[in-house]
Amino acid sequence: MRMIIISKAPSCDPSMRQEDLTVRKDEQFPDLADTFVAHRSQLCQAAARILGSRDRAEDVVQDAYLKVMEAKTVFSVKEPAAYVFRMVRNLAIDHYRRSTLESNVFAVEEAGQGVPSPAGTPEAISIGRQELNLVARALGELPERTRRVFELYRMGGHTQREIAKMLGVSPTLVNFMIRDALNHCRSALESAS
Amino acid sequence: MTDIECGDAAWNQAVDWLMREHEESLDDAAREALIDWLASPAHRKAYEQARTLWLVTGLVPTSDEQSDPPSDDD
């Protein structure tokens, strides 16, 4: 069996072909980092569609790779491809939103310190394995229905109204459960720090 | 004790904004309103905290995706 160890983060350089990579088969599920590398150029395209810029897409994919390296120490994921695509999408959306606010809000603060941040390049949020563990555990502690609602909202991309219809409950209750989930995760992080 | 102290209005409003951004792309008027709201350092802090937490929750695989959920017992 061929195994390729990639020690550096992937670039969006298309000269590295997908066929050059072999997903390791000695594990129950493909390794997240290997999956990431194997889909590198499609991940860049997905990020570029959200951000409208190849350069910014590359920054986001690099950031996502670092986060995948943390996540793989914490989670074993059944469908790593779906997971890494969602991760890149989440980060691209975060960067995009942040960039729409950056020049108006956050740059003012940074300029005050004499370190203006160029608009459109939001700084990456550092997320460690401890935070991932705490939040995963906090979500696991939620009542099953609350967790299901949160997953439908956060990962499933459904609106509160849609979820209310799907589950036959009021939108107010759905809103309450999403807040409850976030508040519980926040408490878990705060009690550890 | 509840998960969250009463009167944590900035956090609750930050979560409101987060959910709104998650469900729709803000139009110009809404973005202006968010920018005004972020003029307060307390609001900015709450928004950043909520944004980070939102990202972390997005990195946790769903219960269906996890083949090895974190255990409480170890």
Automatic annotation (TrEMBL), chain B:
InterPro entries: FecR_N
Domain of life the protein comes from: Bacteria
Ranges of residues in domain FecR N-terminal: 13-53
Protein's name according to its UniProt entry: FecR/PupR family sigma factor regulator
Originating species: Microbulbifer taiwanensis
